[in-house]
Amino acid sequence: MEALNLDPVGLTHDRTQVGARHGSPSKLVVVVEPKTSIQNITTIRMKLGMDWGMANQWGTVWLFYRFVFNCACIGESPQHLTVQIQSQLFPSPVTFSGIHAKCTEQESEREKRGGLPFRTREGLDFLQFMAEAGVSDVSFSGSRFTWCNNRPDTARIWKRLDRLLVNGAALHLRHQVTVQHLGCDPSDHSPLLLSVVTRLDDKPRPFRFQNFWTMHKGFLEVIRDCWTLPVSGPPMQILALKLWGAKQALRQWSRQTFGDIFVAVRGAEREVMEAERRYDLDPTGLLRSELHHAQTRLRYALNVEEGFWRQKARVKWLREGDKNTKFFHSVVTERRQRAVIHRVRGIDGEWVEEEAQIGEVAVNFFQGLFSADGSQSPHQIKDLIPGLVTAQDNEILSGIPTLEEVKGIVFSMDAESAAGPDDFTGKFFMVAWEVITEDVYRAVVSFFCGADMPRSITATSVVLLPKVDSPQDFTQFRPISLCNFAKKIISKLLAERLVQVLPRLISPQQSGFVKGRQIADNFLLAQELLTGIRKPNRGGNVVIKLDMMKAYDRVSWPFLLQVLRRFGFSETWIDMMWRLISNVWFSILVNGAPYGFFKSTRGLRQRDPISPALFVIGAEFPPRCPAITHLAYADDVIIFSSGGRASLARLKQVLDEYSRASGQRINYQKSYFLTHSGFPPRQAAAAGQILGFQRRAFPIRYLGCPLYVGRRKKIYFADMYNAVAARILSWKNQLLSVGGRIVLVQSVLASMPIHLLVAASPPQGVMGAVERLFADFLWGPSDGGSKLHWIGWKDICRPWEEGGVGLRTLKGVHDSLSVKLFRQQQSLWAEFMTRKYCVGLHLCLADDGPLCSSTWKRMVSVQQVAEDNIGWVVRQGSIDFWHDNWLGTGALCGKFEVFFAHSVANFVDGGAWNVNMLRQYLDAGLVGQVLQVARLPSGDRIQGLPVKISFFMLRLMQGRVPTMDKLARFGLCGPSRCWCCQEPQEESLEHVFCSGEGARTLWRYFEIHSGEMAGVHTLRHMAGLWWLRRGSNEFLRFVFRIIPSVICWELWKARNQGMFEGQRIRGRNMVNRVVQVLVEICQARFPMLRCADASWEGLVREMTCRQERWIIRTVHWVMPQECFGYLTNLRAELRALLVGIKHCIARGFLAIHLESDSLSLIRMVRGKSDFPWEMQGELDGLLQFKQHFQIVAHCYREANVPTDRLTNLGADLNGTQLFQSMLDLPQWIRGAIRLDQLGIPSIRRRMVGYV
Fold first, then answer.
1. Rounded distance between C-alpha atoms, residue 272 and residue 265, angstroms
2. Residue-wise over 731-750: b if at least 16 C-beta within 10 A, else e?
3. Is the predicted pLDDT of residue 867 greater than 70, yes or no?
4. Which of 14, 520, 1157, 1251 could form a disulfide with 758 if both were Cys (CB 3.0 to 4.6 A apart)?
5. Burial level of 450, CB count in 10 A (0-12/13-18/19+)?
6. What angle do CA 966, 970, 975 make, to 5 degrees?
C-alpha cells in the first residue's frame, strides 16, 4: 500500500498530481487543507484516478482510496478525519487519522534551520506527548525538513512539521511502514509518501545460540556428546569444526526440547488455570500437588521466554527476580524498526530501494573503505619514535599463555555480548568450559606458536548503526564489527598484555585507552588552557578541533607495523599483530542478511578488544613531531597554537605528513578552529585559508562537556538535561515494574550526568531539573502527567540502611567529585594545576583569587571540607588501616613506618578485633584506643528480596501506600471499603495488612505452622517479631526474614485485584501464592535448593535439613562490650542507652519510652542537633530501633530517682549483672521504686556559695 499526504497545496496545480510525484500509482491519498471547495471533491477524485473519496464535514481533511480498501469514518472534527481501513493486506482493521494541527514544535534542533534558536522545552513537550500517547515517529528518507517559508536569504526558515506517528500495535504488523519526503515545489509543504511493504527482515532466521539453553539440565550432555566426536586437523581447524558440530546438535536438540517457546508459555498458562479450577472444586492434597507442578512448569516457561527477549533486547541493567518481558519485547521491536534500511543513496547519488541493490551498494562502499590506496609513505617516521619496549617486556608479551590465563580472559568477557558469524555467545564458552577447555587452549597456544587462523575464525560481520536519524547514505552509518568469540579470546589476551606497557609508550597528552588516565583530564586541562586565550601573544591564540574521517577504518597496516618496530616490539609480537589484523574477512549485514565476503587491506575493527590499543600506538606519531601543544582522546584531537601564519603553516605541514604516512584523512567539513571574540577578523580569515577549516564560536562540545570562554551559563549545560529526558522518553515506562524503574535509575540515569559532573560544575538549577526528571520517572506516569511522589527525593536518596533506595543527589555527587579532584595528583592536568597554583606550597595551603579559573575555585571551595572530614566510621572494614583517619586521632601512617597495605578488616577476626595482630604493629596505648572503636554491622537490609518487593516494603513501613486513609490526607476522598473481607469494613493500612480478614488468615497460618503465636495487633510489631525470630540455621532464618515482606506484597496484590478487577482471592489460594513466591526467592538466593514439595511444610523441611558451614578459629578473650573503658560523658551515655535498648528488644518489650537526663543526647536522637562524627556508629545502632520509641523526652535526675540509683549501682559493679525481677534488686533501690509509684517527690540538696 502507498499513501500520499499533500499538505497544504491547491489541488488544481498539475505538479501536485500523485502520478507525477512518484513512480507507482497511489492507493490511498490524504489531503489536508485542500484550499478548494468541497464541491470539487468528485472532480479531484477523478483526476487522481481514485475509486472513492470522503471528507470531514468541515472540508479540511479529504481522503481518496481505491477498491483494495474499505474505509469507514469513525471520528471527525474540524482538524481531523479518522477512518477504519479493512483490507486483505492487513490481518485486522487498521485505524488511520489524517490530522491538520496548528503545531510548530519539533523533536530536536536538527528539525529546524533559520529563524529564532530552537527551544529545548518545545522538543521535550513534543516527546512527552508522544510518550504519553504511546506513539512513535516513523523514520523517513529524503530531506529532513517538510516545510519552508520560501523567503529569501537569512529570512528563510526550514522545519519538519509533517510526520507519521504509529502506536505499538502498528510496530508488530507483518508489514513495514516507511515515509519519503518529496519535493515541496510549488507548495511550502512537502508531500509525504507512505509505503507499507513486507518487512525486509521477515525472512528465515539462521542459527542463533540462545543463552536460556544453558538453564536446561541436559545442555552439557548435548555438548559433551557432540564434542567427543573425532576431528582431525590443526588445533584452530579442530575448534572451528567442533563448534560447527555443536551448532548442528544444538539446533536439533532445541527443536526437540523447547520447540516453540511462546506456544509452551500459553500451554503452561492453560494448565495452571485448569489445575486451579480443579483444586477449587476439590481441595485435596493430590490436586494441590498437581497445581504446584503446573505452576513450576509455568515459571520455567516464563523464565525461558524472559531469557529469549532479554538476550535480544541486550538490556544489561535488569536484575534477577524482576520480569519485564513486555519491555524487552518493545525494545526489540523498536530496535528492529530503527535498524531496517529502506532506501539509501548509491555512489552516483541515486536512491536505491531494492534490498539486494542496497546490499550491493553497502559492499562496494565498505570494500572501498577497507582497501588501501597505496599512497602512504611510512619511511618518514623512522627517526621520530624512540625504542621504549625492553627485552623483558617482549618476553612477557610473546610468552605462551597458561591455562589459567586463558580461562581468566574467557570469564572476564561479556557473556551477553552479540555473537559473531559463528553465532556463539560468550555464555556458551563459559557454561561449557569444562567440556571445551582443552580444544580452546590448544587453539590459543597454536596461534602463539605461529599458526594462522582459518577464515571460519576470522570471519567478521559488520553491523551498521545509524549515526543520525534517517541516514541518507552509508557515510552516515557506523560500522561495528561482530567477531567470533574464539577470535576475541586471542585478541583480548594480547590486549591485556599490551595495556601494561602502554603508559610508558604513549605521551601524556593522549588519555584514550591508557591505563590510569581519564577522559575528564583532557577536558579539565582544555578548559584551564582556555582561561588564557585572551592573553597577548604574537599572532593571537587559536584552538583547532580536528575530526579524522573514519579514523579506525583508515589505519595503514605498514605504517602501524613500522611504529611498532620503532618502539622496540619484537618481531614475534609484530608477526602476531600482523596475523591478527590482516587475516580478516568481512560480510556486511543489511536488514539481517549478510552480503559479500571480502578481505580488508587496511583499518582496525571497531569493537575488537585490541583495536583501541593499536590505534593509540599508531596515533602516537604526531606528538613525536616538532612540538605541538595538543590533547587527544583516541582520534578526538584538539590543538592549541599561535595564530601566526608561520605557526599555522608549519602545523598544517605536520598534519599533511601524518595523513600521507598513516593513511588517515582529515574531515575538512567537520574540523574547525576557534578564537576569542576579540580576534581580528582579517587574521581569522587568513587562518581559515591556511588551515582549510571553518571558524566556529564558543561554546562547543568537547568529549561530551561544554567548552566555553567567560561566564558559566545554564544554556551551556542544557544537553545534560535533554539527554536524560530523551533517554527516559525513549523507554516504555508503562511496561516497567517499579523495581525495574529503580534499577534503571540506579544503573543508567544516575550515571549519565557523572561524566559531566567530574569535569564541570553545572548550575544548581540544571541539577535540580534533572533530579525532577529522575523522580517523575521513578514514580511512573499517569493520565495527567506524573504520579504522586509518596517519598521525597531527598529521602529516596538516603542509603538502604537509613530507609532510602541507595541513590545519591547530584549535588552530593558533585561535591564528592570535587573533593576527588582536590586530592588527585598523578595526571597531566593535576601536574599543570600544581605548577600553576601551588608552586612551593602544599595543596592544603593553596588559595584562590579573582584571576583563578572556575575549576581551581571549585577545588578550593571544598578544601576545608576535605581536610575537616577525613574521618571514617568502621563498618565492613574496607577502609585503609594506615592512611584513613578512622581512629579519630589522625592517620596512623604519621606515627608509624608503614611497610604493608592493610584494610581495617584485616585486623578483625570473627567479628572482633584481632588483639594479637594489633600488638604486632601498634604500641599498647594505641591498641587500647582501637579496642574502644565499635565495629557495627552495615544495617538490617534483607539481601535476596526482589527490588519491587523491597521498595514496596520501604513505602509500607513509612506509611506511604495509597490506601484510602492515606489518600484522605491528600484530599482524595472516596468510598472506603476493604476488598479482602466478606463483611463491609473500612479500608486502612493496618486493616489491609494486619487486622483484616485476609491478613489475619495469612499471618495466623504461618504462625501456626511455625509453632509461635504472636497475639499482636500492629503491622510493625508483627513484622518485627518475624525479623527477630531465630531459626535453626541460616537458611531458615532467611525464610523468617522475608515472610513479612512477601505476605504484605501478596496482600497488596490481592487488594488491587479486588478493587480494580473485581476478583476476590480465597484464603487457600493466598497461602499458595505466598509460598510460591517464597520458593522462587529461596531458589534464587540458594541455587542448590531443590524443593520438590512446593508447600510451606515442604519449604521449612527443606530449609531445616540444610547444614550450615562452620569456621573454627582460636578463641581470644576480648573486653566485653559493656565495659566501655574511658569515654566522654556523652559517648558513655549513648553506649549505655544502646545496650539497654537491645536488652528490651531481645526480651520482647517493643513499645519503649526513652527518657534521659542528658539533654544533648535527647536532641541528637530527635535529630535536632549535630553530633561528633566519631559517635556516628553508636548513633546509627540506636536509630535502627527508632520505630519502637513511643516517647523520647528529657528528664531531670530528680524526677527519675530509681534510674539514677541503678546508675550508681552499675558504677560500683565490676562486671555485667542482669536483674530478672524486682526481688533481685537491692532493697534501697526497691524503696526508691515504691516511692516513685506513690508520687512522692525527691529532693536533691545543692550547696550554693556566694562570693
1. 11
2. bbbebbbbbbbbbbbbebbb
3. no
4. 520
5. exposed
6. 60
519/876 Cα distance (integer angstroms): 31
- Tell me how far apart the alpha carbons of residues 763 and 758 are, in angstroms, rounded to a whole number: 14
The pLDDT score that the predictor gives to residue 1169 is: 74
**In the chain, what are the helix, strand and coil shares in percent, each to the nearest 5?**
50, 10, 40
248: exposed, middle or buried (C-beta count within 10 Å: 0-12, 13-18, 19+)? exposed
Could you tell me the three cell numbers for 89?
493486506
**In terms of Cα–Cα distance, which of 606, 549, 551 is closest to 581?**
606
Listing from the earlier edge strand, what are the strands of the sheet with 672-674?
629-633, 636-642, 541-546, 672-674, 694-696
Residues 967, 972, 975, 978, Cα dihedral to 10°: -10
Closest CA to 937 of 601, 658, 1188, 1181: 1181
Q: Report whether 761 contacts 712 (CB < 8 A).
A: yes
Task: Render 478-535 in DSSP notation, one character per residue.
Answer: EEEEEE-HHHHHHHHHHHHHHTTTHHHHS-TTB-TT-TT--HHHHHHHHHHHHTTTTS
Cell of 674: 576557534
Q: Which residue has the higher pLDDT, 469 or 783?
A: 469
Write down the pLDDT at residue 613: 92
Question: Cis omega before residue 536 (within 30°)?
Answer: no
Amino acid identity of residue 633, one-letter, is Y
The predicted structure's pLDDT at residue 338: 66
Question: What is the CA 605 to chain-centroid distance, rounded?
Answer: 26
Residue listed under C-alpha cell 579573582: 850
In 3D space, the residue among 763, 765, 766, 793 whose CA is nearest the CA of residue 777 turns out to be 793
Contact between 1037 and 1030 (Cβ < 8 Å): yes
| C-alpha to C-alpha distance for 402 and 413, rounded to whole angstroms | 17
Residue 31 corresponds to which cell in the numbers above?
489531503
Strands 1189-1194 and 1152-1156: parallel
All cell numbers assigned to 885:
583517619
**Other beta carbons within 10 Å of 486:** 25
Copy the grid coordinates of residue 1069: 489460594
CA distance 342 to 430: 38
Task: Annotate 226-246 with b (16+ C-beta within 10 A) or e (fewer).
Answer: bbeeeeeeebbbbbbbbbebb
The pLDDT of residue 180 is above 50: yes
CB 395 within 8 A of CB 626: no
Q: For position 1125, what pLDDT does the model report?
A: 54
Quote the CA–CA distance of 185 and 16 in Å, as a whole number. 9
Report helix, strand or coil for 1035: helix
pLDDT at 200: 46
Whether 492 shows a pLDDT value over 90: the answer reads yes
**Which residue has cell 481531523?**
80
Q: Work out the pLDDT band at 786, boundaries 50, 70, 90.
A: low
The structure's pTM equals: 0.67
pLDDT at position 823 is 72
Rg (CA), the chain: 36
Q: Number of helices and strands (H, E) in the chain?
A: 47, 34
As a CATH number, domain 26-198 is: 3.60.10.10
Alpha-carbon distance of 833 to 525, in angstroms, equals: 9
Half-sphere exposure for 79 (CA within 13 Å, toward CB): 5
Pairing state of beta strands 28-32 and 61-65? antiparallel
DSSP assignment string, 789-801: -SS-HHHHTS-GG
What is the per-residue pLDDT across 18-42, written as a single tens digit (0 to 9) for each? 443 444 566 788 888 888 888 888 8
Residue 891 has a pLDDT of 67
Long-range contacts of 58-64 (CB under 8 A, 24+ apart): 59/34, 60/32, 60/33, 60/34, 60/100, 61/30, 61/31, 61/32, 61/98, 61/99, 61/100, 62/30, 62/31, 62/32, 62/34, 63/28, 63/29, 63/30, 63/31, 63/98, 64/28, 64/29, 64/31
What is the residue extent of each domain of the chain?
A: 26-198, 211-325, 391-707, 714-814, 871-940, 947-1105
Cell of 243: 563448534
